[in-house]
Structure formats: C-alpha cells, structure tokens
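[agent] plan:
  1. take the single chain provided in the ticket
  2. run structure prediction with default settings
  3. attach structure tokens to the ticket
  4. add a short note for the reviewer (M.T.)
[agent] executing step 1
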Amino acid sequence: MTGSADGNTITASMSGVPSIMNSLNSLASSKLSVHSRPKSPEAEEVIAELLEKAKFYTSLCLGTTAILSVFAFLFLIPFVVDPAISTIVADYDQSPVTCMVVDHVYGEGLKNCTWSSCREGCTTAATRCHQLLVNYTKIPWDDWLNKPRRLDSIEWDVADTRLLINSEGCGYPPRVNCTEFAKQYGFSHIGEPFPCFYSRAYPEMVITRYSWEDNLKHLILSLIIPNVLFAISIGVLSYWYCPCCDKACRKTRVYAEKFPTKEE
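[agent] step 2 finished; step 3 output follows
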C-alpha cells in the first residue's frame, strides 16, 4: 500500500511539470512581446521633438560661448597677455634686491606727467602722477636684513632710476592703488631701504611687485581658456550644421566599412 501511494504521488508531481513549463513559456513569450512591441508614432515624434529642442538650446549656448570667448580673448590681450609678455622679455631677477627712494615728485597735468610710477588705468593718460626715483644695489634683500649696511657706504649699481609699481607701471583697482603705493614708498620713506626687482635686460627698470609663477600662470590661462572654449564650440556646431563636415564623416565611415581590418 505504501508503494502504491508513493507511485501515485510521483505520477501526480510528474504530471504537474508540463503545466509549470507551459506557464513559464507563456510568461517569457509575454515579456518578449512587450519588449518587441514597436513604439507608437506619437511617442517617436515626442522624442524627436525633445531632441530637436535640446539641440537648439545647446547650439544657442555654444554659439554664445564662442562669441564671448572671442571678446574675452580680445579683452585679455592688452590687459593680461601683453603685460605678461613684456614682463618675460624684461627678465626680472626673481630674488629681490635692495632699493632706496631718493626723490618723490607729485605732478598734475599732462605736461608734468610725462611718466608715472603708478597709474590707475592703462588706456588713459595720467593727469595726476607720482614720480619716484630710486637707487638700487644688487645686494639681495635677505642678506641686507641679516647684515644691514650703512647707506652712505653703499656703492649703488644704478642711481636715480624710475621706480614702477609693475612692469607696465599701471593697473586697475583693487590690485593697483596709487595712493597706497605713494604712502608706502613716497615722501615719508625717502632714504629707507626696501626690496625691489630689477630687469636684467633693461637695468634701468625697477619694479616693486614681481612673481614669475603668477605671471606665467596668468599668461597661460588667458591664452588657453578662451581659445579652447572657442574651438570646442565651433567644432561641435560645425559637426552638427556644416554639410562638408557631415559628408567627410560619412565618407570616413564608408571607407572603414569597405576595407576589413588586419585582424579579420
């Protein structure tokens, strides 16, 4: 009796296997039918419309970026690129030497301001100016601090030369403040030694601010950033809208498809 009962159980379980398999097959076929169901034309039109809008607004942003990059580069040429190149050409000594102001003249009017140690604005003529003359010796400033000398015993390498705030002698607030510059180096500090930088190419040029790293960094950034943004923007727009670029890309793809690779 036990054997017959077990046989009936096995037979019943075996008979249930085809039904389970059929249900699994029907479930798989329903999933395939769902995935393989073609999209409706309305859905495709909506997607195409969204892509067109995205392309339009992206193109607008890229065009604006290209135009702004051109204007930014033109703006940076006189204010950053040209002064940085002039500073590199002047070849200033990176280690400060010892200077001393010997004369300070404050002038007003174009006739009295033929040159200026500091000028706020590099594109307009100065109507008020501070003219500072200095003597400098090539004794490093650190050595002077460690071992001060008597000023009357110093043999100055260059005497009565112009002192400039930077290589161009001008700039824009807040980096350049001529009033503070005059207070720091002017009348009340005549005869006091201070650190300065002289030009090895033009020994008569002396400035109070100089950093090789900052000068090179500003030059590289002002050259790379606008040009890279312009190139990327124009490249993408040309690929999208220039028929010649599209044909060239298609020819390249056809050529690659016709000829098999070495591995094949």
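[agent] step 4 note for reviewer: Confidence is low (pLDDT under 50) at residues 1-17, 31-36, 252-256.
[agent] ticket updated
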